[in-house]
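User: Modeling request: complex.
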Amino acid sequence: MSNSGFQVSMAESLKAGTRQTVQAPFGLALAELAGKHEDVVGLTADLGKYTDILPFAKAFPDRYFNVGMAEQNLIAISAGLAKIGKVPFATTYGVFATRRAYEFIAVLCAHGHLNVKVFGALPGLTTSYGCSHQAIEDTGLMRLIPGLTVIDPCDATEIGQVVHTSYQIAGPVYVRLQRGNVIKALPEGYEFRHGKAQIVRQGSQIGIISTGLMTAHALDAAAALEKQGVSVAVLHAPCIKPFDAKAVVEFARSVERLATLENHVVAGGLATLVAEVLFEAGVSQKLVRMGLPDEYIECGSPGYLMDKYGISSARIEQKLSSMMKN
Amino acid sequence: MLTNQSPPPPASFELLRERAHQLRRNMLVQARGKGQGYVGQALGTAEFLSALYFNEMRYDAARMDDPDRDRFLMSTGHYALSLWAVFAEIGLISRDVLPLYGKDAGPIDMTTFDAVLGVEITGGSLGQGLGQAVGMALGHKMDKRTCRIFIETSDGELQEGSTWEAAMSASAFRLDNLVALIDCNGIQADGAIVIDMEPIAAKWQAFGWDVAEINGNDLEQVVNALVGARTRNGRPKAIVMRTKPGKGIPTLEAREKSHFIRVEAAEWEMLEQELERNYV
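Assistant: Request completed. Predicted assembly structure:
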């Protein structure tokens, strides 16, 4: 399914500048978790190296299984393991987990309330490899599955916290996974709280609700706008499902202008969720949706593509400035 | 209900035949209550279900959550009435509920859900069973448990690519605690098998499984094949069973479109009589 003879360094491709990075935060956290819990099993479908699960595999070779290029089987085997009391963490690319193995996640894992944790790498435009590898609609697909938890962590610290939290969550979990050298972007002391969105920057004139890696870009853009005298708040919403409607409604009411930002098509994901909860709460507010267009996207480095499609820090900064003129 | 591990003495074949016959009665009661159903497939399963639940498998029907139990997975969920027929005999459900098969808000559905005690996997979507069986067998190997996984799959289901993904992994992981019973009844939703799957036994052999090919409606052959499948040699076991839809009721055996049988209200009594007459 996958030609993976390349490795993208997120730090290089995104020109993260002075931000610290952590190599393979997922695998490190999984190895730590497995040291505490004997029922943790790790599986992959020929993408062990490319989904950062190797630190776990090295530490616990007897609990690591590579099923080959067979994503449906990856999920089915994980379901079988979960049925007899294991807690399987299955990795592949997000596109393969969600497009190819969707029915297996829905019928086996979600309908059966099984403890299967699926980590799908290469969310949105974090790969150079084009449509086949860019998970641009995975959040939308997965949030529709009843009983499935869906999380889009922002940075290396949060990925580690989500690994530990997902073990505690009863039932299936889908996580959008950043791999390789993953930046640290969230404020010191930040802690992932399941089902919660958290304000990671205070402000009043513009409020950005963002998820995943995009919260890092939102913070960059907010810092840049502050120099122009514009106060920008950022609400980080890593939990797509369950979604923190209360925090979103309160946040929307606290700012003058509102935007959403996601590394995903603007339909079906974060922007749609925000519109749903605001409308339901009777909050009528103009909403600027930043994210990917309704089309498949070409090959190109993440930095180049994010800039072209308007989700780089610089492009977000421009967009926010234009919002102030309206 | 802990069954022994040695081959049954010849006398017990008679007992297993009686069990199979009672399963067929139970199936017919369900289909009659519903007025229609997947009774053709079900009737073809009576022998192997009798051999499994009343001879080969080690389990205690009062403790179906025992982690060390042998498990039977029905991969073709639309065979549910086969399973309910068994459950009525081992006491997981009452025989009284059988006529309520497939009724709105009824106690037994037309397909299988794993929330029901004794049902190991949710069926309905074909091609999802064997991979789960591999996961269970793999987990039991990790835990050094001696219990085994038995799974029914069908010739039509072999058309699902995911079945072969699972077959590939079972031999790669050396799962000799896994036994697949392949119900080859020659039919699928659109009628007679629409894509030729032969040679079925050779395909499983090529995937690294130990294979036996038998008449799945011959109880002795089924029992003996299951005894043969006890060998722990690092290879998963496949029993290719040739079965006849409608088996035991000549009128249904002869019916052409037996994937989903519709029977006129007046016919049921005749079919029940045929079943009794045909049982010798």
